[in-house]
Design brief:
Blueprint lengths: L1 E4 L5 H7 L9 E2 L11 E5 L14 E4 L5 H4 L9 E2 L4 H19 L2 H9 L15 E5 L3 H12 L3 E5 L9 E4 L4 H5 L4 E4 L13 H4 L5 E5 L11 H7 L2 E6 L19 E3 L9 H16 L15
Parallel strand pairs: 1-2, 1-3, 3-4, 4-5, 6-7, 6-9, 7-8, 9-10, 10-11, 11-12
Helix pairs in contact: 1-9, 3-5
C-alpha cells in the first residue's frame, strides 16, 4: 500500500495510518520500492500520470471528497476509486458555510467599513428566518450545510441533479435552476467539478440574483472568474467568499486580492483530519482486500 499526498503535511497521516498497518505494508511516496508491488494507493493532489506507473494497481482511495483531479488524469488506470466521506470534512464545511452565511446575514462587511470610518452605525438586520440560503449540491457536504443552516433558523433551498425530499428544505431539480435562484440572500456552491458543472457560476446565473452573497466552496473552476466583479458591480451579487480558485495559489495579479467585497480563504474551508479519516480508509481498503465493493465509490460516468 502506498500513501502519496502531494499537498502535505504527511506526518499526521503516518501517525494515524502506521498503527493500522497490521495486515498491509505501508510505503510512503517517494519511497515506493518496486512499483510492481504496489496494489493500493491512498492519494491526494497527484500530478497527472502518477498512478499509471503502478502496473498492478487494484484500487485507489482519495483523501479528499472531490475527485476531479483524479478523473481528469489522462493516464488514470481503470480501477475502482473511493473518495473521502468523513466527519472531519463534514464538520469543517458545516462550520465554514454557517460562519460565512452569518457574516453576511449580520452585515459584518458594513460594520468593517463603518469601523474604518470611525462611524457608530447600528444596522437592523432581519431575523434568520426571513433570509433564504440556496445550496447547489445536496450530497454529503451540501446536505450537512443545509441541516446546519436550518438549525440556525434560515430558510434553506437545495438544488441537485436528482430529485430529493429533505425535511425542511425546498428542493429543486436541475431544470428548476432559475426558480431555485430567485430571491436568494446567499448562494452556496457545494457541487463536484464535472463537465456539467464547470463554469456554472457565470454571468447568466448571476443575472437571476438580486444582491445575494456568493459562497464558493466547491471548486475554483465552478466560477467564471471574469464574471464575478461585473456581477458585483451590477448588484446581482453583494459580496463573495471564495475558498477555491481556478489557479491555486491565486496569482498575485488577480483583482480579487484587493476587492473589499471579496473574502478569500486558501482552500481551507474543510480539511480531512487523519485521526478520523485513516480508520475509515483502512476499513474501506480492507473491503477491497476481501473482494467486496468499497464504499463511497466514484461513479466514472457521472464524474463524482
Ligand atoms: P457528493 O458527491 O456527496 O454530492 C454532490 C452533490 O452535487 C449531489 O447532490 C449531486 O446530485 C450534485 N450534483 C452533481 N452534479 C450536478 C449537476 N450537474 N447539477 C446539479 N447537481 C449536481 O459530494 P460532497 O458533498 O462530498 O462534496 C461536494 C464537493 O465539495 C466536492 O466534490 C469538492 O469539490 C468540494 N469540496 C471542497 C472542499 C474545500 O476545502 N473547499 C472540501 C471538500 C469538498 P445528486 O444528489 O443527484 O447526485
Ligand atoms: C476535498 C478538498 O475535495 O479538500 O476534500 O477540496
Amino acid at each position: 500500500m502506498l500513501f502519496a499526498d502531494f499537498n502535505g503535511p504527511t506526518q499526521p497521516w503516518l501517525d494515524a495510518l502506521t498503527p493500522l498497518a497490521t495486515d498491509f505494508e505501508l510505503r510512503v511516496w517517494p519511497h515506493a520500492g518496486d512499483h510492481s508491488e504496489i496494489d493500493y494507493v491512498i492519494v491526494w493532489a497527484q500530478p497527472d500520470g502518477f498512478l499509471a506507473q503502478f502496473p498492478n494497481l487494484k484500487a485507489v482511495h482519495c483523501t479528499g471528497a472531490g475527485v476531479d483531479r483524479l478523473l481528469t488524469d489522462p493516464g488514470l488506470p481503470a480501477v475502482p476509486i473511493a473518495r473521502m466521506v468523513d466527519e472531519s470534512l463534514l464538520i469543517g464545511m458545516n462550520e465554514f458555510v454557517l460562519a460565512q452565511v452569518l457574516h453576511y446575514h449580520r452585515a459584518m462587511p458594513a460594520y468593517r467599513t463603518a469601523q474604518a470610518a470611525h462611524a457608530w452605525a447600528p444596522i437592523h438586520v432581519p431575523l434568520a428566518r426571513e433570509r433564504t440560503v440556496g445550496i447547489m449540491g445536496l450530497g454529503q457536504l451540501g446536505l450537512g450545510s443545509a441541516r446546519t443552516l436550518l438549525n440556525a433558523g434560515f430558510k434553506v433551498r437545495g438544488w441537485s441533479r436528482s430529485a430529493k425530499a429533505i425535511e425542511g428544505v425546498d428542493t429543486f431539480g436541475q431544470s428548476a435552476l432559475p426558480a431555485f435562484l430567485d430571491g436568494l440572500d446567499s448562494l452556496v456552491c457545494l457541487l463536484p467539478l464535472t463537465a456539467a458543472t464547470t463554469g456554472i457560476l457565470n454571468a447568466s446565473l448571476f443575472s437571476h440574483l438580486s444582491g445575494a452573497s456568493l459562497i464558493n466552496v466547491g471548486r475554483g473552476a465552478h466560477l467564471v472568474e471574469e464574471d464575478l466583479i461585473p456581477a458585483l458591480d451590477a448588484g446581482y451579487l453583494s459580496a463573495a467568499t471564495l475558498d477555491v480558485f481556478q489557479t491555486e495559489p491565486l496569482p498575485s495579479e488577480s483583482p480579487f486580492w484587493d476587492d473589499p467585497r471579496i473574502t478569500m480563504t486558501p482552500h481551507a474551508s474543510a480539511f480531512t483530519h487523519p485521526g478520523t479519516a485513516a480508520p475509515k480508509i483502512a476499513a474501506n481498503l480492507r473491503r477491497a482486500f476481501a473482494g467486496l465493493p468499497m464504499s463511497d465509490l466514484v461513479d466514472h460516468t457521472n464524474g463524482y
